[in-house]
Amino acid sequence: MRPVATLFLAALAAATVQATAPTCSADDKCPEDYPCCYSGMCGVGTYCLGGCNPLDSYSLDSCAPEPICKNQTYTFTNMDNAILYDHYLGNATEYDWVYSGYPKIQNDSLWLTMPNGTTGSLFALNHYIWYGKISASIKSSRTKGVITGFILMSDDEDEIDYEWVGYNLTSVQTNFYFQGIENYTNEVTAAVSDGDTFDDWHTYTIDWKPETLEWQIDGVTMRTLTRNSTYNATAGRYQYPQTPSRLEMSLWPGGSEAEGLGTIEWAGGLIDWNSTDIEEYGYFYAQYKNITIECYPAPAGTIDDGDVSYVYTSDSGLSSTIELSGNSTVLNNLEDTGLNMTAGSKVTASDSSSDSSSGSSSSSGSSSSSSGSSKSAAASHGQWAVQGSLVAAVAAVVALSSL
Ligand SMILES: *[C@@H]1O[C@H](CO)[C@@H](O)[C@H](O)[C@H]1NC(C)=O
Ligand SMILES: *[C@@H]1O[C@H](CO)[C@@H](O)[C@H](O)[C@H]1NC(C)=O
Ligand SMILES: *[C@@H]1O[C@H](CO)[C@@H](O)[C@H](O)[C@H]1NC(C)=O
Ligand SMILES: *[C@@H]1O[C@H](CO)[C@@H](O)[C@H](O)[C@H]1NC(C)=O
Ligand SMILES: *[C@@H]1O[C@H](CO)[C@@H](O)[C@H](O)[C@H]1NC(C)=O
Ligand SMILES: *[C@@H]1O[C@H](CO)[C@@H](O)[C@H](O)[C@H]1NC(C)=O
Ligand SMILES: *[C@@H]1O[C@H](CO)[C@@H](O)[C@H](O)[C@H]1NC(C)=O
Ligand SMILES: *[C@@H]1O[C@H](CO)[C@@H](O)[C@H](O)[C@H]1NC(C)=O
Ligand SMILES: *[C@@H]1O[C@H](CO)[C@@H](O)[C@H](O)[C@H]1NC(C)=O
Ligand SMILES: *[C@@H]1O[C@H](CO)[C@@H](O)[C@H](O)[C@H]1NC(C)=O
Ligand SMILES: *[C@@H]1O[C@H](CO)[C@@H](O)[C@H](O)[C@H]1NC(C)=O
Ligand SMILES: *[C@@H]1O[C@H](CO)[C@@H](O)[C@H](O)[C@H]1NC(C)=O
């Protein structure tokens, strides 16, 4: 029911924020000093990279330009091309993926895990896709309250989803959003035949074109959305996903006590942390392999000033106002922003971290929602359960439990 989207954004929100981090929205944009709006909070550095919302930021160029689409099949034999989200500086050539939580490689697959009491894992592609065909072989997690995700998410919150709710292993939910606008009729359940979603590999495809969007399972089209069907006559616009998007894979606790009632209900109820997977392995898990990205060309008429990045040029966030640019996507360091990406001295990704103590991905198995600050942080961060505190210092950080 509820967009998983904001959860992802929040998982990546961290890095440097003010002790009293300004909030942001379309009507209340970020101040120049903290120009980047990320999941409703203003900041610099990580806030200006993937997930930075140009429409709610200080200006359209506050967020760093978005790395352009790359044709690629990803297999998983190691994590060399992945980096912890708050070490990433925007160079998608150097690191294809950013992550948070507890991912690991096993059996030539990417396993996203959710240890007992944690908020799970997120794995996001740094190359944006502006129309394309995206396929992966996936085995979902299982158990009520446990949500597996495979979605496309744009920086102004256009979204195309597959979501598996762990109580039902013979279906997957398909959904889409335009600029984050909730509409329950957009969610459609698709049956998965031939075994189930946990025990068996199935190939899930999103075929996203400017005029049509298809969800395909094992090569069979389960749902088609036409752009025309999304026309809003009052606003004079198509409410169709249309901006460059990142692929995000996730395993998260929809049935966590930290979630709203609607989300818990949608997830099938509260998670049983004593269930089989926790007892046997110590975590819930979802598996992904051979992910293929085929980039479609930019829509006819797109202004083409280069082949490095996508940039927003209008507050409308409409497809017709996205441009191709030659501008770099890389910040010199985590104090920089899109307003001047080379203001600070250059550091390497391996040196960079908003907080070295929050850097380790898998050493702390702490539980998610026990700390005092958790609730407020979770609320303002769209409820990705956050542990830790806003440290009152110049470079305060939000330390996420799962990091
Ligand atoms: C990005 O990383 C690649 C590979 O490490 C490197 O060749 C390139 O110079 C980097 N680009 C920038 C802008 O730092
Ligand atoms: C790894 O794959 C093999 C062969 O398909 C299978 O027998 C084994 O159970 C898998 N291991 C795990 C941990 O899934
Ligand atoms: C799972 O979803 C399918 C399709 O909506 C439905 O037919 C089936 O009854 C559901 N199963 C469970 C256990 O909820
Ligand atoms: C949801 O979308 C449908 C189909 O496009 C549309 O008819 C309906 O008005 C929308 N409802 C809301 C509440 O936005
Ligand atoms: C969408 O609507 C326009 C105008 O009515 C029409 O020209 C076009 O063929 C339609 N496109 C599709 C894919 O149906
Ligand atoms: C259509 O656009 C108008 C004006 O922006 C907005 O108030 C309305 O909620 C939109 N309708 C839908 C179904 O999204
Ligand atoms: C899990 O089982 C243990 C031992 O049986 C019990 O003490 C505990 O309360 C259970 N925890 C939950 C979260 O159900
Ligand atoms: C998971 O954690 C809860 C709370 O600490 C505990 O009650 C439960 O026994 C744990 N589950 C397992 C299978 O260890
Ligand atoms: C991906 O893996 C699945 C399951 O092993 C296999 O059926 C499929 O052919 C593979 N696809 C590609 C493109 O390698
Ligand atoms: C990706 O591959 C397709 C053909 O499969 C090609 O048309 C397209 O130009 C390629 N795009 C990029 C960005 O390499
Ligand atoms: C590219 O960067 C230059 C220099 O920072 C800037 O003037 C220009 O507006 C940028 N172009 C786009 C399309 O954002
Ligand atoms: C970015 O900041 C550096 C260091 O202050 C300065 O030298 C450079 O001129 C600035 N670049 C732009 C485009 O403002």
From TrEMBL:
Gene3D superfamilies: 2.60.120.200. It is a lipid-anchor; GPI-anchor. Residues 1-19 form the signal peptide. Residues 59-282 form the GH16 domain. The keyword Repressor does not apply. The active site is at 159 (nucleophile), 163 (proton donor). Residues 344-376 are annotated as: Disordered. GO terms for molecular function: endochitinase activity; glycosyltransferase activity. PROSITE patterns: GH16_2 (PS51762). Pfam families: Glyco_hydro_16. It catalyses: Random endo-hydrolysis of N-acetyl-beta-D-glucosaminide (1->4)-beta-linkages in chitin and chitodextrins. InterPro entries: Beta-glucanase-like, CHR-like, ConA-like_dom_sf, Glycosyl_Hydrlase_16. Keywords: Cell membrane, Cell wall biogenesis/degradation, Glycoprotein, Glycosidase, Glycosyltransferase, GPI-anchor, Hydrolase, Lipoprotein, Membrane, Signal, Transferase. The keyword Transferase applies. Residues 349-376 have a biased composition (Low complexity). GO terms for biological process: carbohydrate metabolic process; fungal-type cell wall organization. One of its GO terms (cellular component) is fungal-type cell wall. Its main location: membrane. Its EC number is 3.2.-.-. Dual chitinase/transglycosylase that plays a role in cell wall architecture. Chitinase and transglycosylase activities are coupled. Required for the polysaccharide cross-linking at the septa and the cell wall. More specifically, transfers chitin to 1,6-beta-glucan in the cell wall. Belongs to the glycosyl hydrolase 16 family. CRH1 subfamily. This is Crh-like protein. It comes from Aspergillus heteromorphus CBS 117.55. The lineage of its organism: Eukaryota, Fungi, Dikarya, Ascomycota, Pezizomycotina.
